[in-house]
Inverse folding.
């Protein structure tokens, strides 16, 4: 699928879909070039991100790495990068090192590994199950009061001032809770421990551990009862980051309170709830390709697309680039204050450009010089070709006439159209050729069906 004829820029790139898992639109691949570099950008939609990208650019005569059966091999692509879940990445490819020239058709394969993150439950959410517990004793060696001894009360946050709303660990006691949806390591702190302390009270402490699988435990820090909940003053809070852990399904809390600070009735750290500060998410990993033609009809669904290297210049106001491929764009001129739109055809990309099928703002056909009107249309063409003259072909009725027109000259052809050509050096290796075509006002002369400019006949 070759690109359309318009020159592509960063603000107006050639864009295709980034397809994940064969049928999901995960974003876009955007391609453009200037005089020196080809730019290939992967952009993901909001719910997707990039973890790997692989790019290969094949110039004419080269091939994208494939197996003997024709399946692509991203690991052998010329450019690759691993990413920390980013939503955009751009490759800058040196055209001269690739041996790519203006007008070359490049075969480009853009492979990626993408991750989709779907929120199942928004934060905060709480531990779902008590996996294990071992309640300690009060300072005097007796059992903790029954009302304070239900471990299930250490799961979900309850705000009321009641002894039945928390679980007292007892001195040296512990509890292990499980999250049905693991706590994800995200931005900022990931875990909150909520404790009950009513009024002024000595320090209570508990060591906090996390584990993804209940096997190896990672120490996160120590919770205490010194920081009050800003919304409910009878509770205290302590927050923790998961550190090097990607996620944690299990949290263990072990009382480390110093009995010497307390009276004989004290019973250690009073756990109200264990809370996740990150959303519960479902993460899906998929392979993705820039949409195009498949390498093989069956099996691997990897794809590539074709991009034609454009002129390094950027088309200015009213300009259209000569370089491109095929059909598909149009060009608008100002004819005495009215917009006239031409269809653009490039039969020989990089050499010829034809303007035909003129229509006015209502969509009706409006060829130059209809009904004997004296009218002028102006065409500005941008190219890197430095030529001394251009062949201009007009068609009126059934007759085609070709005139070789030197830059800076004017001529009236046999179809009655006066054509002026001026040439401007843009100073960046490109040139703007401006053609004005004026009808003769003779009602017996047919109107302009098309005009074509050929830049490859008489190079300087």
């Amino acid at each position: 699928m070759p690109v359309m004829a318009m020159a592509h820029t960063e603000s107006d790139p050639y864009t295709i879909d980034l397809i994940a898992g064969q049928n999901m639109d995960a974003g876009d691949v955007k391609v453009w070039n200037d005089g020196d570099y080809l730019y290939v950008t992967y952009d993901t939609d909001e719910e997707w991100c990039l973890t790997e990208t692989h790019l290969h650019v094949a110039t004419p005569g080269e091939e994208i790495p494939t197996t003997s059966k024709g399946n692509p091999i991203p690991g052998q692509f010329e450019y690759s990068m691993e990413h920390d879940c980013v939503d955009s990445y751009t490759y800058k490819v040196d055209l001269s090192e690739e041996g790519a020239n203006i007008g070359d058709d490049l075969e480009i394969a853009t492979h990626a590994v993408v991750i989709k993150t779907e929120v199942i439950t928004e934060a905060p959410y709480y531990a779902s199950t008590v996996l294990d517990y071992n309640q300690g004793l009060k300072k005097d060696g007796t059992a903790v009061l029954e009302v304070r001894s239900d471990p299930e009360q250490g799961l979900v946050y309850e705000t009321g001032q009641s002894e039945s709303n928390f679980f007292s660990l007892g001195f040296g006691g512990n509890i292990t809770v499980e999250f049905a949806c693991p706590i994800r390591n995200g931005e900022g702190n990931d875990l909150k421990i909520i404790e009950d302390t009513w009024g002024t009270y000595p320090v209570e402490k508990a060591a906090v551990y996390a584990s993804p699988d209940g096997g190896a435990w990672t120490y996160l820090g120590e919770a205490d009862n010194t920081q009050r909940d800003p919304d409910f003053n009878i509770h205290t809070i302590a927050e923790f980051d998961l550190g090097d852990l990607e996620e944690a399904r299990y949290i263990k809390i072990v009382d480390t309170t110093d009995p010497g600070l307390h009276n004989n009735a004290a019973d250690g750290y009073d756990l109200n709830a264990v809370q996740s500060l990150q959303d519960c998410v479902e993460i899906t990993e998929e392979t993705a390709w820039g949409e195009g033609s498949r390498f093989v009809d069956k099996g691997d669904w990897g794809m590539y697309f074709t991009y034609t290297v454009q002129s390094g210049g950027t088309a200015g106001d009213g300009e259209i680039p000569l370089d491109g491929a095929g059909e598909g764009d149009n060009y608008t001129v100002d004819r005495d204050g009215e917009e006239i739109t031409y269809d653009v055809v490039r039969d020989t990309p990089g050499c010829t450009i034809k303007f035909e099928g003129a229509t006015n703002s209502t969509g009706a056909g409006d060829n130059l010089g209809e009904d004997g009107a004296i009218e002028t249309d102006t065409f500005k063409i941008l190219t890197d070709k430095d030529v001394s003259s251009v062949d201009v072909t007009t068609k009126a009725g059934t007759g085609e006439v070709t005139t070789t027109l030197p830059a800076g000259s004017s001529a009236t052809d046999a179809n009655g159209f006066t054509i002026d050509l001026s040439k401007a050096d843009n100073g960046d290796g490109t040139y703007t050729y401006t053609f004005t075509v004026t009808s003769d006002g003779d009602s017996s002369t047919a109107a302009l069906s098309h005009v074509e400019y050929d830049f490859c006949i008489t190079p300087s």
